[in-house]
Amino acid sequence: MELLKQRIRRDGQVMAGNVLKVDSFLNHQMDIRLFGEIGKEFRRRFEGCGINKILTIEASGIGIACIAAQYFDDAPVVFAKKNPTKNIAGEVYTSKVESFTHGRVYNVIVSKRFLGPEDRVLIIDDFLANGCALMGLIDIVRASGAELAGAGIVIEKGFQEGGRIIRGMGVRLESLAIVESMSEEGGVVFRG
Ligand code: 5GP
């Protein structure tokens, strides 16, 4: 998605530790007009897939998913909660996710009331790095008996292994910008 790539080139900052900082428009301050264009692009790519629910993970995925949902017949957005405490077994789907940016392991949970076999799910998230967050969400979709239509990612870091693993699982993965390489001196180079 050209508009997104231009914005990353202009405002993205390459940080130490393979972190791309895009907090001026994507995951701290949020450019809602850009989010609208991102939502339209997800709809274009998943048109006709019968999506009736969008699943994301707190916190950064929520804003993007909410704006995108407007282009999917107002499908409800469910966000997985990162929960450090124990939950009553039976009421929630759970999965473990190791955070790339914080290095912590979270238990993520989704209430069984909000995801089930009647759902056709699109997963949306801001970044794909090693794939832990996405794999946790995929686990939850599978446990619920819902059908996974695919995953829409805003920025995939193609030099990390998540994309290869998720595509290798046969999941339809659509990333709007794939970073081939990045460095503090050379900036960001995109795939394709
Ligand atoms: P993964 O689980 O695929 O390793 O990492 C995905 C999660 O880590 C995303 O939900 C995102 O919040 C965070 N993340 C991964 N890489 C980056 C990055 O380069 N920049 C930022 N801002 N967040 C990242």
Automatic annotation (TrEMBL):
<comment type="similarity">
    <text>Belongs to the purine/pyrimidine phosphoribosyltransferase family. Xpt subfamily.</text>
</comment>
<keyword id="KW-0660">Purine salvage</keyword>
<dbReference type="InterPro" id="IPR000836">
    <property type="entry name" value="PRTase_dom"/>
</dbReference>
<dbReference type="GO" id="GO:0000310">
    <property type="term" value="F:xanthine phosphoribosyltransferase activity"/>
</dbReference>
<keyword id="KW-0963">Cytoplasm</keyword>
<feature type="binding site">
    <location>
        <position position="27"/>
    </location>
    <ligand>
        <name>xanthine</name>
    </ligand>
</feature>
<comment type="function">
    <text>Converts the preformed base xanthine, a product of nucleic acid breakdown, to xanthosine 5'-monophosphate (XMP), so it can be reused for RNA or DNA synthesis.</text>
</comment>
<keyword id="KW-0808">Transferase</keyword>
<comment type="pathway">
    <text>Purine metabolism; XMP biosynthesis via salvage pathway; XMP from xanthine: step 1/1.</text>
</comment>
<keyword id="KW-0328">Glycosyltransferase</keyword>
<comment type="subunit">
    <text>Homodimer.</text>
</comment>
<feature type="binding site">
    <location>
        <position position="20"/>
    </location>
    <ligand>
        <name>xanthine</name>
    </ligand>
</feature>
<protein>
    <recommendedName>
        <fullName>Xanthine phosphoribosyltransferase</fullName>
        <ecNumber>2.4.2.22</ecNumber>
    </recommendedName>
</protein>
<dbReference type="InterPro" id="IPR029057">
    <property type="entry name" value="PRTase-like"/>
</dbReference>
<dbReference type="InterPro" id="IPR010079">
    <property type="entry name" value="Xanthine_PRibTrfase"/>
</dbReference>
<feature type="binding site">
    <location>
        <begin position="129"/>
        <end position="133"/>
    </location>
    <ligand>
        <name>5-phospho-alpha-D-ribose 1-diphosphate</name>
    </ligand>
</feature>
<dbReference type="InterPro" id="IPR050118">
    <property type="entry name" value="Pur/Pyrimidine_PRTase"/>
</dbReference>
<feature type="binding site">
    <location>
        <position position="157"/>
    </location>
    <ligand>
        <name>xanthine</name>
    </ligand>
</feature>
